[in-house]
Amino acid sequence: MQGPQYQLSSFAELSTSQLYEILKLRSEVFVVEQDCVYQDMDGLDQSSLHLCQWQDSELLAYTRLLAPGLDFDDACAIGRIITSPKVRRKGYGRPILHESIRICEQRWPSTPIKLHAQTYLLDFYREFGFSTYGDEFLEDGIPHFFMERPIRA
Questions:
Q1: Per residue in 136-150, pLDDT tens?
Q2: Entry pTM
Q3: For residue 28, is it within any domain?
Q4: How many other CB atoms sit within 10 Å of the CB of residue 103?
Q5: Phi, psi of 93 (to 5 degrees)
Q6: Where are the beta strands (DSSP E) in 37-103?
Q7: What is the residue range of 21's domain?
Q8: 134 lies in a domain?
């Protein structure tokens, strides 16, 4: 058994088994656990990068990275930020968000990073230099804020 490993992939590079595990985890948490009926498969996966943290074949944490213009016209974005309920509160969320930020800054250095943050997670994202803008809004029935991390020199 090896330790957890990160894998960054385009949609085309994901195996069908990997894609199944990603969609299964997203459904388990965002649809079932959060009791939120919404269209997870929104047509953006095919144009996004997918950062997975695997241990053997088990998906521990995941984020979706979107180039400028896919979610926000003026920024790249990190979305679908998730840790498996099996490893929640065991220190997987911060490292995958840190790695997601690092990749965004490397790939799109001249743009800020934005995300849609569930309101209860604002303090978590603030730890990484994100700040809210605009008013709270409901996204699929869950309170959210837009957050932005400015360009780092």
A1: 999 988 999 999 999
A2: 0.93
A3: yes
A4: 18
A5: -65, -45
A6: 49-55, 58-66, 76-83
A7: 5-109
A8: no
